[in-house]
Amino acid sequence: MYRSHTCGELRLSHIGSKVTLSGWVQKSRDLGGMTFLDLRDRYGITQLAFNLEEAAGITEQARQLGREFVVQVEGEVIERSSKNKNIPTGEIEIKVSSLKVLNVSKTPPFTIEDETDGGEELRAKYRYLDLRRNPVQDKLRLRNKVSLETRKFLDSQDFLDVETPVLIKSTPEGARDFVVPSRMNGGQFYALPQSPQTFKQLLMVSGFDRYYQIVKCFRDEDLRADRQPEFTQIDCEMAFVEQEDILNTFEAMIQHLFREVRNVELDAKFPRMTYAEAMERYGSDKPDIRFGLEFVDMNAVTKNKGFAIFDAAEQVLAINAQDCAGYTRKQLDKLTDWVRRPQIGCKGLVYLKCNEDGTYKSSVDKFYTQEDLAEWAKAADAKPGDLLLVISGDLDKTRKQMNELRLHMGDELGLRNPNVFKPLWVIDFPLLEWDEESERFHAMHHPFTSPKPEDMHLINTDPGKVRANAYDLAMNGVELGGGSIRIHDREIQSRMFDLLGFTKEEAEAQFGFLMSAFEYGAPPHGGLAFGLDRLVATMGGSDSIRDYIAFPKNNSGRDVMIDAPSPLNEEQMNELGIKLQ
Fold first, then answer.
1. Tally of domains in the chain
2. Which residues contact 328 (CB under 8 A, 6 or more apart)?
3. 203-226 per-position pLDDT tens digit
4. What pTM was estimated for this model as a whole?
5. Which range of residues forms the domain containing residue 47?
6. Do 367 and 469 reside in the same domain of the chain?
7. 445 and 389, same structural domain?
8. C-alpha of 291 from chain center
9. Residue in 514, 527, 493 with CA at minimum distance from that of residue 215
10. Assigned domain for 346 exists
């Protein structure tokens, strides 16, 4: 037996007990006659006490131990004379009678403590050491709890956990596939699934009316803080349902998760907002509604006054930063530099200070009178002491830029509290979006999303105006999940492929199996998939999903710990019939 108790288990009630502990040496303190070691496992830390006068040999042995040595000790639980209220075991210590080194350790490349001195790249290379740190373990414990409670909830609602294939057919629509060569079928390739989309629809055709899976998905796309090449979805599908049934079911699931995992009660009913309204008010289909700073359309009060930039703009937008008129010129210049960064792409930033004395100061004073500027303030409901920030340009681009500025100001003004959670259903997305480069429509969600029945009459005459039976759940500026009511009729699905530029032959080659299934009594169905990584990171109050994944990739899609991806040897390449260009 390596241990009778864990390092986070012992309390005053155990005093006098003979115990065996095993773990890693966290740190050592040599006080001359006494030596103390902190022994750590994933459950906590227990202090070990060695007395030079009572046990010289074992104390000398303890003094030789380095950080991260793996040891086993036997001893008696005693009360600490100097108690540590910061840890659960801080009232006791172990008077060690036996010490055994189970394994030695090299000096770690960074300190394995809550506040480490290791940079991100170094910790990624030695991820197995980084995973010993409490903050990282806490994040994975949170992930485990979310997964467990998700399964509990869905099981209580009669959902069945069904596995779907990992080696499937490549479907170029959407993000790039990761492809896998087939040795037994020379010159042919599998793809790794971007989602189990078609399989979960086939399960509905098969009569499994409530399916779920916590499943790995793969997309070969550029990475960022909330995106990895392999990620995990809580993937769900339901038959004989309408949109409202799905929203109510998964609203209840999210409420359950926050209640059980974070002890947070979310709103009894999540607000709903159309895509068009979200873009108009926030410039984002996943708006952060924890704070205001909503967009103000300034076209009516800024145009035709001789300021060429505004006069030529399709859209002039403002946000009202309340009580910020005290911003200095240096602060405003810093904001201007921020919006001019290539990632944002603004040519400049106009401001209007609403002074306490009722006057106005703007960066475009020479084009606008005090009366004109008063109209600006009125349009934005600005009071003395407020600051308007204004940008302009093409409609879509300006909305996107103002969304970034709004979020930045939310951070600057401390309005984005990570411990406040505000969910929002965004509904009525466009079914299609036009791509100028390819000169064809693309599905905003995916090709299997059904049009809204009331818009079906537009599908042949004005497809760009057709709304989708689609919905996303946003929270704190993050898209937690999205889904739709699916097409279950072969003719409508075939028409959708036509709109997306598929030939009949292409549609049949890629999705003939699904359309064939629709001819055998496919029920009305729909579903939703949550990004587990994003959901857990949001619940943990973090912008990055990496620390919530045991072994994540970096921004280049590399695992620097195992050095992957890596070349194949010549024998493997020949066996697969592959040559590199």
1. 3
2. none
3. 999 999 999 999 999 999 887 767
4. 0.92
5. 12-103
6. no
7. no
8. 20
9. 527
10. yes
